[in-house]
Amino acid sequence: MTLSCYFRCIQLLSLAALVPAFAFAPSSQTIRTNSNNVGAITTIFTPIQSSQNQYYKSSTRRLSSKTTTTQLYSLKPAALPLMDSGKALARSGELLIDLTSQLNLYGGGLSAAGANIRNCGDCLAQAGASCRMKTAQELVIDELREGSDCLREGTDKLGRAVEESEVDGNVVLREKIEKMILPMKQTSLFLEEVGASILQKESTDVIASHLISAGEALLLLSMTVQELDEKSEDGKLSAQRMVYASEQMILAGKELKGDMKDDDKPKGKGWIKG
What we know:
37% of the residues are buried. The longest helix is centred in the middle third of the chain and has 32 residues. The termini are far apart. By secondary structure, this protein is mainly α. A hairpin with a 7-residue loop joins strand 1 and strand 2. The chain has 7 helices and 3 strands; from the N terminus they run H-E-E-E-H-H-H-H-H-H. Helix 5 packs antiparallel against helix 6 and helix 6 runs antiparallel to helix 7.
């Protein structure tokens, strides 16, 4: 055996020793990364099939960095005023139902509208309670939209009450009820805008402006409720509670916007009033 043949045999034996190591390697891609951070160097071993054996070719690439932007804010400043607004509005709806009993209209469209106002107040109170938690924004949105739907349904009930008053020939009552439709519809739309603004991650100034607009529309609605029967105590109380509900809703918007001065904020146990 010549010397060249001897070295040739040694090369073949060394190649034969390396083949089993690649033969039992996984067929899929094997990825090795020297770091878990963004921009780390990643080495990829890609299997390449040859006519006899399978061997691996290595390549490197750098992971691209991705940035995401999220807008987080707290609705907690509006929690207490919104809860008070909801409770007052719910009481106003109950008093409106009692007023329909005195007007011999219980069970009609006006009393049904009062029930919708009461349900809207319950939704607002629940939304205010959920505003205290950062992770409950979906609950706040659901409650606000449900309250908006209650007032929207209430406008339909008021339309039915107008038809009922026409059948009864009570023209004065029909005109008074017609005045309630527009402000109730506006309040419903603004409440829906509040929920939509939270869902779309708009700024707190936009959310606060919709809350303030809803409170102003609710104030107009309270004036029409008071005109239903100026001699009735239930009518006056219903209007008064609705006025307080509108004031607290406007206050919730101002608190959320940060326009409240320290002198205007209740001190001590002043927040218990109402």
